[in-house]
Design brief:
The complex is a heterodimer of chains A (252) and B (295).
Chain A (H helix, E strand, L loop, with lengths): L3 E12 L2 E12 L3 E5 L6 H7 L10 E9 L2 E2 L7 H7 E4 L10 H11 L5 H14 L3 H4 L12 H13 L5 E5 L7 H14 L4 E5 L3 H7 L2 E6 L2 E7 H6 L4 H7 L5
Helix pairs in contact in A: 3-4, 3-6, 4-6, 6-7
Chain B lengths: L3 H41 L1 H6 L3 E2 L6 E2 L2 H32 L2 H14 L4 H20 L7 H26 L2 H9 L4 H30 L2 H6 L17 H8 L8 H36 L2
Antiparallel strand pairs in B: 1-2
Helix pairs in contact in B: 1-11, 3-6, 3-8, 4-6, 5-6, 6-8, 7-8, 8-11, 10-11
Classes of the chains: A alpha/beta (252), B mainly alpha (295).
Chain lengths: 252, 295
């Protein structure tokens, strides 16, 4: 068995007639962090959302090619999208906790997947909050509304909420872009911690962030994957001239 | 003639007058209502007025108890809501979350157009189509019953409920939906556990305003409710809600008579009920805004 958790093969993506992704090929290694960088509108977020089929929600979108997840194409007609999303969790750009209590936010996933036992729920909630490095800050107010938390705390809550359904892959769409530097540093530390248990794919605007947190990096430009390699290689000795131009700040 | 400063001042004051005129009208209406109607409360007593079921305004001695009329209004309104709420909320969910955008742009304005149909047309339909139909299937002496009024008012309240509930559901941020779906919830779970609870106070507002529409409706109930001032114990019998009582009797009540005052008294009660509805609707709306904006 290969060490690829997911493998993207010749992926094309269309919004109606507009082709947003051209023949993307990326291996996503188990227990590694893969960063996706590129200027706005290059398709990196669209690509991320193909990995848990969130683009299915947008009218008029179409996918060609395949994405293998443990050797099985997630776009096969017999794939249960709901089950897929349980295994491939996602954290969004804007922290989006539900207008419910902190506890109910984290317990939401386990509950919809049928867990009713209060003791077990409490255990999962605590573990997930610890996993997201938030537990110590909120342990005395689990019944308070999640909307009372700071932006950084809300984002870690969203990570905890994603962890609570025990996914195998965690997708992060610019998870720190709405946060201040201190909160960003916390999220980055957390990512380093989380890759022990999860395969992580992170979209980021910040090249420094990609360099700090990731093992592999893919550079997207206008729907093409220009270059994909080890992060060190991409940042120190990129093969493609366009990659070099981008990371040295000549455009984008 | 004037310098610009004076001109601006004049315009400002004219606009001020128009801005306040609606408040002025409302105040005027309230003053008239209470001036004309209040004497009946001292004459027969508020308790007697509200809870006696003897509405015999032209008998000797007369009875001015509006209990049956009040009950008629309440029962018909509740019945209308029993019909309109499930239909209204279900359509709102469908329009906001299931229907593709291009159909939504046709369906929603069409439903809203229902609100613009003159109520006398609903009355005609109830009187000549729905009434005879109910009469036939239930073997009734008359098809003009509380049930007929409930169905017609339910239909009339639908556009209000659909339109406002749809707004409320659509106003729930899409990222709540995305978060739920990304956690592996299906669409039904997402709707029931995230979207509806978030939209709930907005939906409550929609329902209360729909109730206000139903309880204040006059022409339709006048035409289809049958008009008997009986306690509405059986919805297959005629009733007479407050609004149709006022409309039907005001023409014959001598100005300043007790009957006239009693009809104004009914108007006061009706006014207070709709005022309370509006206050509750507004409170629910405030709660909804808070919830959606995440404060």
């Amino acid at each position: 068995m290969s060490d690829n958790k997911m493998e993207v093969k010749n992926l094309d993506f269309y919004y109606d007639d507009f082709q947003a992704l051209n023949k993307i090929n990326i291996p996503l290694k188990s227990n590694k962090v893969t960063a996706l960088i590129g200027p706005s509108g290059c398709g990196k977020s669209t690509f991320l959302r193909t990995l848990n089929r969130m683009n299915d929600l947008i009218e008029g979108t179409r996918v060609e090619g395949e994405i293998l997840f443990d050797e099985k194409n997630i776009y096969d007609p017999d794939v249960d999208v709901v089950a897929l999303r349980k295994r491939v969790g996602m954290v969004f750009q804007q922290p989006n906790p539900f207008p419910k209590s902190i506890f109910d936010n984290v317990a939401y996933g386990p509950r919809i997947h049928g867990l009713k036992d209060k003791g077990k729920l409490a255990e999962i909630v605590e573990k997930s909050l610890q996993g997201a490095a938030l537990f110590s800050e909120v342990k005395d107010r689990l019944d308070d509304s999640a909307l009372g938390l700071s932006g950084g705390q809300q984002q870690r809550l969203c990570i905890a909420r994603a962890l609570a359904v025990r996914p195998e892959v965690l997708l992060m769409d610019e998870p720190a872009s709405a946060l201040d530097p201190v909160a960003t540093a916390k999220i980055e530390d957390l990512i380093a911690e989380l890759k022990k248990d999860y395969t992580i794919v992170i979209v980021t605007h910040s090249m420094q962030q990609a360099a700090r947190v990731s093992d592999n990096t893919g550079f997207f430009l206008m729907g093409d994957l220009v270059e994909f390699d080890k992060t060190d290689k991409i940042f120190e000795n990129p093969t493609d001239q366009r990659t070099e131009d981008y990371i040295t700040g000549r455009f984008g | 003639m004037f310098n610009w400063r004076t001109k601006e001042k004049i315009i400002k004051n004219i606009l001020l007058f128009f801005a306040f005129s609606s408040i002025l009208f409302l105040t005027g209406i309230i003053i008239v209502l209470f001036k004309e109607g209040a004497p009946i409360f001292t004459k027969v007593g508020i308790h007697e007025f509200l809870f006696s079921s003897d509405w015999y305004p032209t008998y000797e001695p007369p009875g001015y108890g509006i209990f049956n009329l009040l009950a008629g209004s309440i029962v018909v309104t509740i019945g209308a809501m029993v019909i309109a709420v499930p239909f209204g909320v279900a359509s709102a969910i469908h329009i906001s979350y299931i229907l593709p955008q291009k159909y939504k742009n046709i369906v929603k304005p069409t439903i809203e157009m229902l609100a613009g149909v003159p109520s006398v047309i609903y009355g005609l339909f109830g009187m000549k189509i729905l009434g005879p139909f109910l009469q036939k299937i239930f073997h009734l002496p008359t098809g003009l019953t509380a049930l007929t009024a409930m169905i017609m008012l339910g239909i009339m309240a639908l556009p209000t409920i659909v339109s406002l509930a749809e707004d409320a559901i659509t106003a729930v941020p899409k990222n709540f939906r995305d978060a739920s779906l990304a956690l592996g919830a299906n669409r039904l779970e997402t709707m029931l556990r995230v979207i509806l609870p978030t939209a709930s106070s907005g939906i409550v507002t929609a329902i209360i305003l729909g109730m206000g529409r139903a309880i204040g409706e006059t022409m339709t109930v006048l035409m289809v409710a049958g008009g008997a001032a009986l306690f509405p114990a059986n919805i297959l019998k005629p009733v007479r809600p407050m609004t149709s009582t006022i409309a039907a009797e005001m023409g014959e009540a001598p100005v300043g008579s007790s009957h006239y005052q009693a009809l104004f008294g009914i108007a006061i009660i009706l006014f207070l009920i709709t005022l309370i509805f509006n206050i509750f609707a507004d409170m629910a709306q405030q709660r909804f805004k808070k919830k959606v904006s995440g404060e």
